[in-house]
Each structure stands twice: as structure tokens, then as C-alpha cells.
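Lab meeting minutes (informal)
Scribe: AK
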Amino acid sequence: MKLVFASNNAHKLAEVRQIMPENIDVLSLREIGFNQEIEETGQTISENSRIKAQAVAEWLKKHHSDIRIDGVFADDTGLEIDALDGAPGVYTARWAEQETGVHLSETETYAANRAKALRELKGEEERGCQFKTVITLIRGEEEIQVAGIVRGRIATEEQGHGGFGYDPIFVPEGYYLSFGQLPKETKNSISHRARALQALVNILES
């Protein structure tokens, strides 16, 4: 089975390929020649996931109708912090940049987002939160959405250098190590993205 993952994020792509079964070939946007910016104008994680999947599916119809591709899937992820009424939510990826208006590199963005989360929760005892991933699969005329959620808490300081994004400050429920400290195999078995992908695989293999 050949699916296009509507992302060029190298970290996400590596994670997805590690989680997906071997019989599913995952292609990146770069590998199919898609280099357009997709404007994520949705007001929810679900809407942004759908926008990305639809944009790539429509592009494939026009540019690669002669190549057998079994479907397109896109994910969108949000960190929802209880004490901040669910923020940053849909703005998770560019939370710090949204506040300052300063465009940052990917690595700088990740660091600024973590720093903002720690600032916002300084002195706060209630540090519960959840990561939520929504995946939209478009297969022909069929459109399906699945979700994965992992509960946890925001650490009081960065812990570990593994993973990406908010991983060094997110401690999943039942663990004392952050996603930035846990072995990759452990993270990929319990993460929000892993749970959403497993739901997707169940549909693909049914």
C-alpha cells in the first residue's frame, strides 16, 4: 500500500515511518514533488488536518493521476494545557511566534514554544495537559478522521534532548521521564501520534 503523508517535517516523517507497518509505503510531499505552502486556516485541529489532506489530494489528481497512490493522510497536533483553558491548542506549532510576530527557524520555534509554556505555568501547581493528534485520510471519494490522545503534565523545566517540539517538557501519564528522555521506541508506542496512526492502520487493514 502506498500513501502520501502530507508533511515535509522530517521529525514527523521519521516517527510515522517507524510506527507504520512495513507493508505501508509512506511518501513525503518532497518525494511526490509537492512544494506549495498549505495555509492552515482552520479554527480547530480537525479542520487543519482536513485542509492539508484535501489540498494534497486535489494536487495529486491534477499532477499524478497516472501513478497508483492508495491515499493521502495528514495530521495536525495540539497541546492542550488545562490551566490555560486548552491553550495553545490549534496554535501549538507557532505559539511563541504568534505572540511576538518574529519569524523563527524550526529549532528556534521549538525552543521558544517550550520557554513560553514554562513561563505561562511558572508557580502553577496544576500542570495537567494532553497532546491530541487528528489524522485525516482521503482515499478516493472517502474521507475518514481518527484521533489519538495522551494525557500528561508539563514539567517545571526541560528534561532531555530527544524528540522534538514540546517533548522535553511533556511527561506522559504513568511516567516520570519526559518524551525528550524516553527511548524512541517507548514514545512511539504511547504517543498521541502513535495512537492516531494505530487507529488509521486498523481502518486500512480492515
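Next up, CB showed the second protein from the same session:
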Amino acid sequence: MIPCEFERNGEVVRVDPTGPLIVTAGVPDMVISAATAGLGIVSLFEEWLQPSFDSGELVPVLKSWWPSFSGPFLYYPSRRFMPAPLRAFVDFIKR
């Protein structure tokens, strides 16, 4: 099992999770459902968890250790000769 890493101000803490259910990747809805059912804690993008926070189904923990995320980055070779599907994707992401 890959340990969970938390970093704050240069301090790194590693936690080796144990338990009956450990999900390292998968469908966010499934992971959120497991957490709201009381099976453990979840680490996902805050935006995905906000509805569960707002409803009171989940409570934020370790908030001072949450990583910041400035958003996705997309690198591509040229704006000048961009294929139409890539142009549509870039426009969608910008919105």
C-alpha cells in the first residue's frame, strides 16, 4: 500500500492506511459514498466534496494540511496550427 503524504510548510507526514476498505483511485462518487456511509475518510478535490460538506454528510478534517491546487495545466505545441478537436477541448477547459 502506498502511504498517504501530507505536507505543510516543508514538514511531511506519511500515514500508512489500514482497514477493510482502502481505495487509491477510482470513481469519486463511489469514494464519497463510502465516506458518507462511515467507512473512513476521503482525500479528493475540495470542489467534489463541497456538496457533502454543505449537507453535513461529511466534515472536513486536517484542513490546515490540505494541499492547494491552482488548476490543471495543458501544454500543446502551437496555437497556430491547432487541430479542431484540441481547440474545442482547450475552449471547454478555459470555461
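CB comment: The chain has a mean pLDDT of 84.
No objections, moving on.
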